[in-house]
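Field log, afternoon session.

UNIT: design team B
ACTIVITY: writing a sequence onto a fixed backbone
BACKBONE:
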């Protein structure tokens, strides 16, 4: 590289840095990097970082939100790293609004606070108290949901307890979803106990959670659900058994592939798929019969499953 070329490169770099510095300082409320890249765009189109004032302005004197949910989502997401102790009580109220996404984003914002959320008497502890003592099932359900979104191990025990002891199916189902989010079956395997809940929605929610939670292995309890009154529960039970490669449950799953025993076509298709995942030759005759099923989804699932045996 010649000296002339070197001097040219140094000059070009200096000019480039000067241009970036100039454009970044033009509007200090924007991200400098983005402002330099998109310097020809209207400044209003650039993402701005929320300030404590912006967050507080969303709420009235009573702490209730004054703006639409979409505005709340935007302000909180752009205020991910904003420290605002005064904002916490108002955002905490969002854990109990009807909009699910607003509750999720509120919990996400709160769990990222270094101070003011996880100490004694603060938002996290109050959420646990709400789950344990509120007379309103809806509030208890939202509290269980929030503890899942907080992703703190301290919430596992109260959520697991609610899953097996709360009198409301609404709360028990929310607790199952929270354990799913926390990736645990509970300190005493409460999720397995919930698979035998008297309410079909709770059983289904617990079954869906079992499919996601790493290390879940209660094959025996799941196998019992292939005869559940709910077709959705039976379907998810077959799916879980397939995922767990439960060879001891092949006979039970085979029963779900027959239209004379299983009236729900989607469940029959899921059972055929599960048999393919397990890969046991004992399922071959059942899958061959399923290729004549009146429902195309079942026939296709059986054909694919047979290729894996």
């Amino acid at each position: 590289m010649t000296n002339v070329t070197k001097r040219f490169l140094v000059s070009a770099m200096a000019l480039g840095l000067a241009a970036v510095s100039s454009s970044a300082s033009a509007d200090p409320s924007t991200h400098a990097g983005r402002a330099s890249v998109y310097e020809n765009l209207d400044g209003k189109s650039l993402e701005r970082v929320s300030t404590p004032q912006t967050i507080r302005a969303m709420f009235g004197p009573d702490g209730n939100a004054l703006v639409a949910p979409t505005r709340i989502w935007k302000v909180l997401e752009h205020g991910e790293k904003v420290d605002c102790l005064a904002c916490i009580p108002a955002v905490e109220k969002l854990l109990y609004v009807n909009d699910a996404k607003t509750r999720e984003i509120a919990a996400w914002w709160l769990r990222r606070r270094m101070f003011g959320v996880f100490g004694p008497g603060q938002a996290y502890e109050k959420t646990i108290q709400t789950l344990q003592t509120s007379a309103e099932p809806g509030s208890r359900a939202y509290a269980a949901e929030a503890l899942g979104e907080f992703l703190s191990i301290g919430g596992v025990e109260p959520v697991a307890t609610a899953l097996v002891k709360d009198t409301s199916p609404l709360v028990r189902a929310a607790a199952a979803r929270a354990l799913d989010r926390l990736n645990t079956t509970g300190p005493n395997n409460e999720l397995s106990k919930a698979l035998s809940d008297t309410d079909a929605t709770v059983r289904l929610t617990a079954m869906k959670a079992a499919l996601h939670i790493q290390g879940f292995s209660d094959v025996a309890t799941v196998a019992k659900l292939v005869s559940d009154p709910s077709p959705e529960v039976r379907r998810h039970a077959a799916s879980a058994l397939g995922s767990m490669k439960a060879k001891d449950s092949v006979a039970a799953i085979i029963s779900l592939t027959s239209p004379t025993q299983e009236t729900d076509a989607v469940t029959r298709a899921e059972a055929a798929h599960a048999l393919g995942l397990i890969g046991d030759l004992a399922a071959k005759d059942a899958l061959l019969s399923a290729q004549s099923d009146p429902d195309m989804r079942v026939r296709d699932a059986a054909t694919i499953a047979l290729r894996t045996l």
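LOG NOTE: The two ends are 65 Å apart (CA to CA).
NEXT ACTIVITY: expression trials, pending approval
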